[in-house]
Fold F-box domain-containing protein.
Amino acid sequence: MEDPTVAIPKLPNDVIIEILTRLPVKPLVKFRCVCKSWRALISSRQFVRIHLKNSRIDPSFTTHRVILNGHGNIKQCSVNSILYEPFTEAFDLSYSAQSEINSVRVVGSCDGLICLFTDRKDLILWNPTTRICKKLPNFDVKINVRGYFAYGLGYDRSSDDYRVVACFNSKRYLSEVIVQVYSLRSDQWRRIENFKGGWLMDDPATFANGKLYWIADHECELEAGWDIVSFDLEKEKYEILQMPSYVKSGYYSMLGVFEGSVYVLCSQLASADVWIMNGCSEGDKNWTKVVTIPYLDDFLKYTYKRALYLLKDGRVLLLCSCTFVIFDAKDCSFSYPEIRNLGEFFSVGAYFESLVSPVG
């Protein structure tokens, strides 16, 4: 029988915080019910930011997920499982008002938050891990529903604010893009200066270091080719970034982020090249080629490819059409991980689990 006079040893608060910030999101949500102090701690903005940082740099990708956008449904599967397990299970993700929506697509991802665009022309900000979501207010201007749209979701560190950027063309000025910015802090949309130049941007944007990046195709034949349009969320300024001249001659390009730097995959005739942005100069000197992926068969050559993850060990997680492929640059080998319960999907994104709330 234990002696009631003997005090049970307690861990220092800083040790408890260090342990908790390294746990997955789902147990942390349950731990908020342990006591009032734990609820206040886990819900605090400082704790959420520390936990977010640990999740972002997770070397084994245990908190990272691939999100699969199907016809009216959304699934996710573990990046760690794809990379290291013999097979991976794809799981359904549910969100509020799902039964009222026929189709939905992912138009943004940042810090564990996902932005959805529904067939009702609604935008929903959603944390798929905590299952908390928020329907954004409508635009305060009329838009051409048959026109061109592009979206992006990012974080402005200077104001500690998550922002959704919506770009669309007007009926009168096809050479200008109307831009609306939503602030989670104020829960309002605000129209800013139009983006000029006749660029058609892909959707969704890639977010890195306070900026949104879109692959952009110029509608003027005299200036045909790809470049990158960037939008600084703090300064609300646009910039056109030139790709390497070699990349411009490719079939298509796709963006991604590796350790805070933007990279672009460009499909060529016999291979796909991945270039990473240095951020130090203009033109070709701003880019470094990090890997070349050869086409060993017609499947690799003729399927539409995207580099989802670059790994430090030289591997690249690719999506080729609807098939996941892992390329290992060390021995130039390919492997094809098995994904069960995958179903049909038409787009793929990526996120990592976080406690960030979409309701501010």
